[in-house]
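Deliverable D4.2, example record:
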Amino acid sequence: MRLSDRTRQLELLAPARDAEIGIEAINHGADAVYIGGPGFGARASAGNPIEDIERLVRHAHRFGSKIFITLNTILRDDELESARRMAWQVYEAGVDALIIQDMGLLEIDLPPIQLHASTQCDIRSVEKARFLAASGFSQVVLARELSLPQIRAVADALPAGTVVEFFVHGALCVAYSGQCYVSHAQTGRSANRGDCSQACRLPWTVTDTQGRIVAHEKHVLSMKDNNQSANLAALVDAGVRSFKIEGRYKDMGYVKNITAHYRRLLDQLLEERTDLAPASSGRTSFLFTPDPDRNFNRGSTDYFVQGRQQDIGAFDTPKHAGLPLGHVARVGVDHLEVELDAGIGALNNGDAITWFDLQQELRGVPINTAEPLDANGRRFRVVPKDPLAELKDLRRGTVLMRNRDMAWDRVLRKKSSDRRIALDWHLSETPTGLALTATDEDGYSAQATLAHPHEPAQQPERAEAALREGLAKLGSTIFRARDIALSLSQPWFLPAAALNALRRDAVAALEATREAGRERLARRPPVEPPVPFPEDTLSYLANVYNQKARDFYARHGVKIIEAAYESHEALGDASLMITKHCVRYSLSLCPKQAKGVTGVQGTVRAEPLTLQNGDEVLTLRFDCKPCEMHVVGRIKKNILNQAQAAERTAVREGVPIQFYRTRPRRQTAAG
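Output generated by the structure prediction step:
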């Protein structure tokens, strides 16, 4: 059934690093795919040429699925024209929507393409979401940190037709999206421009105001991975309609597996909720059993959806420990004997095993060869890739995990899904031959005719069976035959080649009808006169990096507009990261946790803590009223010098770098 109201549809939104992965995301049940275009996506090395985008669009649209392009970095003034040209290119390639962060794009000549507000827009409040909807955005990606009541409040406040999108799986940025500048301050690589250095995954030593060590070399800013599998029904009830999987850097196996996992869960929900519908066509069957634990993950958390939880951090390691495997039964000169736990699949050449050493650091090694030692496949002789002497604390009794399973990888390298749109056949007579009508599950219909003499079949029952069998053969198409009706005065003789040609013509006509009937997503017109922005003052946290973005906010009533952090005007101590994650809370040092504990209340205060990794030193400050943490630091002088050198080089080459500033260019020692 075709639905025009997207807020009645549940959309599974999958990531794609490239067109091939995007095609497999569609094949595994994605209703939409988000992918980088030729440039300006918030993943610096995940761009794709227009030809590949066109190929992906064609495949997606056959199923009624959609393609969204990430144009979600902040842009300099000298980049806006290139971004405008790219927007028109992807629009002409058939792309359905742009995901954007930079409000300067709303001030230039964009094509009439639907706009979605990126997670980088930091949408945490009803007021921000309503403003974006009034400014022309049809779909908004809410902050990952919101709870169910907060999500519901936003969804209820949005104008009709606005789609609420929410991340349901994948890696978690510890900072509110769009509110992290640690990478730029330390390395010059801007997270807001798609080039994050991921300082949050490093080990940090935490000390208090008296210099006492609170945590030694722990990954205290590293979050577990998001997994909302258990919360999908609650998210639907809260108003979420687009369920987004993180992972534009992830490989094919990840996208296949996680897309299949959520496709199954959403299909179960749709069977229970007749008031809702899928956002694209067809049903997908899988040639494997999806299991999100088999992909790279740091453990799982549902983050803040059900309220603040203590166990959200992957503090011991940011790596993938893997699934339980067994233990070391014996250590030889150049090999191990490994005893598998009950129910564990066989070890394979090329697998990788992991274990924790005596200091609880995760270790790992690939396996060169794995040879079974008993008939039941529970004990294996394992030769690791590296010499045993170099494998720390790998001894008899060591508990092992497996974080690469070659048997699983082989399954996902092959065809692993089959997506089909149901159709009904109706074969009837015409004065000069036969007519074949195809009507699909969405109500689209098309007909093909065949001029052929009406020759009575010598064996009528066999001829009728042959007609049905021939019409059911849809193997290389996107369709499956649901019902076959024959309106014939008698089963006529029809050669297989003629029936195949008639079937192919009817399928081609149906696909053409589907494409002709496909409606492009409409661009929402902004409210006029422009609605006021919820605040009249914007700091560097608003990420205003070009004059057009400044003009946008000024047009919406903002009086004071600071330049983006990347403009290098916030030179002193500044909040380089704002996060809902609280190190004090996770280490059981929160003053709120101490309330009611005799002898403790009043002695534990939200005083600053210090983070140190090598020469990098940051300060943690705690804002307890909104229950947020600020990671405070300042930009390095060498980063400023490098930026100014790049500006001078650009001027000499005749392509000056231009961006929004509120004060004259600062001269450094190098300048």
